[in-house]
């Protein structure tokens, strides 16, 4: 909870202070410069330009623009959201940050909270609408960025723009998070926790609409709608069965459950957290509360099972066995947990993957290089867990109409208590999600629980 006397700068400051984070960032950039140098040499390049990007039009028929979402490879270097900024990385040379001078009186992005990161670079400030083309070394230069026109302005030939082999090598550098990145991920969790707590209190104390709760999350985390790492999922009641529900209801109805999947960004790094809350005193609410409490235990069991050297898909398989046990314990399915998995029933109540890698993007790169097994089509992490990886653990159980129709038409239908299913469908579903990172010597750290100790339970006003 934010102290009533805390300023915005207090809330946005890292717990260890900006000086400590700046030192970590300098070490991060030094290591990244060495790595980029090796990648450049391996690809026959004398330099790599990483372009921040340009705002995109809302549509080809409109003259309004979305706010800039910087190229993630650029934010790997610098926490800066300035259009046409760029990093120039050349083997054996200090990295250069090209930051065009802001002289536009129409628009200006919000400045960085701290400028300490600038000390890690040679900084060049060309005039607005100029590039750093004249600052490039001679030879062959590769370009990473979304805007092909910008690459031409830098004098870089089209065949050197976003070469897939180069991108794959740079993506690989993002898998292992540096100490600086781990702190940023933890701070993103801290900020998101402020929003989750504010929304939990608002849900418990009244009949706020989904839109009201969404706005409460933004207020508490000091973000606008364009700055969140993904569109907040604010789902009351039956809307919890829509996995990515973003069509917020405007009416404050008396639904007795809330699934909130919402995160925050810090220095460009994302958090991705889900909590499920239930209120009400009826028999169905009591049963659903028991399911949520069971999920709290099984999700923590999955977090504890994550370890270096384990294939993430094995965790996903374990999650199905645990979800199946909840289905059996609540008598939703009158079969053993093993039979529930073997007959594919758990996949109709829990149709998504256990989680995904996390970093500069909510679904970060580098941990899904292999395809999952055919029975796990939506699993976004197929890696072997290793030091430096960050990922989510987010099991769920839902009452989804389409999946329930499949179940009713299946040979397993006789084993399902559909009267109980129908009674619980008004609650939509449950999902509990934490962010984890593998630290030094393989120790797995839960980045979420220090700030949100409970993943879901009953709430009272």
Provide structural commentary:
The chain is of the alpha+beta class and 461 residues long. The protein folds into 2 domains: 8-173, Creatine Amidinohydrolase, Chain A, domain 1 (3-Layer(aba) Sandwich), CATH 3.40.350; 179-458, Creatine Amidinohydrolase, CATH 3.90.230. The protein contains 13 helices and 16 strands. The protein has helices at 8-12, 18-42, 72-75, 148-153, 164-173, 179-205, 210-221, 283-305, 312-329, 337-342, 346-349, 401-408, 418-424, and strands at residues 47-51, 86-89, 96-98, 122-124, 141-144, 233-236, 257-262, 265-266, 269-270, 273-278, 390-393, 396-398, 429-431, 434-438, 444-446, 456-458. A 5-stranded mixed β-sheet has the order 4-3-2-1-5. It has a 4-stranded mixed β-sheet with strand order 6-7-10-16, with helices on both faces. The protein has a 3-stranded antiparallel β-sheet with strand order 11-14-15. Helix 2 (18-42) runs antiparallel to helix 5, helix 2 (18-42) packs across helix 6 and helix 8 (283-305) packs antiparallel against helix 9. The longest helix has 27 residues, at 179-205. The relative contact order is 0.11.
């Amino acid at each position: 909870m934010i102290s009533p006397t805390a300023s915005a700068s207090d809330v946005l400051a890292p717990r260890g202070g900006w000086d400590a984070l700046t030192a970590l960032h300098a070490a991060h950039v030094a290591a990244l410069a060495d790595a980029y140098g090796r990648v450049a040499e391996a690809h026959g390049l004398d330099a790599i330009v990483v372009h921040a990007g340009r705002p995109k039009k809302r549509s080809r028929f409109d003259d309004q623009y979305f706010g800039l979402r910087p190229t993630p490879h650029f934010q790997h270097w610098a926490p800066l959201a300035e259009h046409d900024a760029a990093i120039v990385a050349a083997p054996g040379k200090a990295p250069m940050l090209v930051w065009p001078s802001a002289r536009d009186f129409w628009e200006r992005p919000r400045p960085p909270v701290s400028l300490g990161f600038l000390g890690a670079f040679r900084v060049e400030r060309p005039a607005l609408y100029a590039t750093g083309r004249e600052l490039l070394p001679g030879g062959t230069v590769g370009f990473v960025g979304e805007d092909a026109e910008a690459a031409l302005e830098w004098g870089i030939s089209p065949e050197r723009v976003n070469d897939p082999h180069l991108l794959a090598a740079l993506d690989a550098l993002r898998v292992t998070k540096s100490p600086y990145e781990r702190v940023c991920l933890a701070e993103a969790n801290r900020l998101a926790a402020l929003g989750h707590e504010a929304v939990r209190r608002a849900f418990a104390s009244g009949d706020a609409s989904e839109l009201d709760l969404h706005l409460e999350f933004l207020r508490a985390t000091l973000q606008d709608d364009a700055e969140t790492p993904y569109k907040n999922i604010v789902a009351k009641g039956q809307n919890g069965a829509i996995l990515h529900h973003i069509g917020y209801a405007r009416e404050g109805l008396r639904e007795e459950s809330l699934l909130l999947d919402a995160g925050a960004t810090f220095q460009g790094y994302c958090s991705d957290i889900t909590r499920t809350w239930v209120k009400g005193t009826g028999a169905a609410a009591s049963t659903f509360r028991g399911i949520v409490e069971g999920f709290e235990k099984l999700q923590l069991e999955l977090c504890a099972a994550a370890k270096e050297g384990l294939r993430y898909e094995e965790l996903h398989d374990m999650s199905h066995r645990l979800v199946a046990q909840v289905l059996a314990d609540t008598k939703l399915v009158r079969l053993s947990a093993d039979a529930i998995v073997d007959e594919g029933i758990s996949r109709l109540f829990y149709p998504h993957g256990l989680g995904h890698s996390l970093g500069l993007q909510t679904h970060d790169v580098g941990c899904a290089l292999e395809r999952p097994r055919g029975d796990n089509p939506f699993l976004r992490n197929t890696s072997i867990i290793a030091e430096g990886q960050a990922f989510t653990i987010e099991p769920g159980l839902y009452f989804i109409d389409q999946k329930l129709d499949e179940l009713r038409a299946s040979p397993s239908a006789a084993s399902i208590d559909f009267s109980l299913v129908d009674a619980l469908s008004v609650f939509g579903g449950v999902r509990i999600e934490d962010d984890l990172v593998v630290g030094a010597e393989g120790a797995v750290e839960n980045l979420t629980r220090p700030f949100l100790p409970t993943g879901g339970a009953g709430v009272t006003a």
